[in-house]
Amino acid sequence: MFTVGIITASDKGFKGEREDKSGQVIKDMVIKAGYTLKKYILLPDEKDLIEKELIYMCDDLKVNLVLTTGGTGFSQRDITPEATKAIIEREANGISEAIRYYSLQITPRAMLSRGVSGIRKNTLIINLPGSEKAVRESLEFIMPSIKHGIEILTGEATECGR
Fold first, then answer.
1. Domain 3-153 -> CATH class
2. Contact present, 64 and 30 (Cβ < 8 Å)
3. DSSP line for 2-49
4. What is the Cα–Cα distance from 136 to 143, expressed in whole angstroms?
5. What is the pLDDT of residues 113-137, one digit of tens each?
6. Spans of all domains in the chain
7. In what helix (H) or strand (E) does residue 81 lie, and over which residues does it extend?
8. Model-level pTM?
9. Which of 13, 54, 70, 121 is spaced 20 to 30 A from 85 at the CA atom?
10. What is the dihedral of CA 146, 18, 50, 59, to 10 degrees?
11. How far apart are the C-alpha atoms of 23 and 93, rounded to whole Å?
């Protein structure tokens, strides 16, 4: 099956002041879906550190999927989308749009999410929200389509999927 890396961006989590529940939800869900977890890391909201880790997971670990959680809001320290945009080669806007669309049916605050999605080499990167509930809802909604997207990206797709 496919490999995955997880990055949680959280100053408080990195300092040990908050438990990383959203990262744990991602970990549990991807393993249950049959993905192999290659790396999980908790980082502070520092653009250069997030960029460096994204590049490492894509270029060196060569994971098929990187899921980030946190750092997608309006706070001055929320810079995960900017770090992602700095290292991707192609955007995959439909994924983030679908997450926001689905989430808007649950809460109008979903419009405040700035998460992005994109591709670097053969790795799909998706910024997920920082809350445990929003991460679970988002992944439940996108995981079936994401699998097919990775199959296309890696040349393993056998049909169009429509």
1. alpha beta
2. no
3. -EEEEEEE-HHHHTTSS--HHHHHHHHHHHHTTPEEEEEEEE-S-HHH
4. 10
5. 999 999 999 999 999 999 999 999 9
6. 3-153
7. helix 80-87
8. 0.96
9. 13
10. -50
11. 22
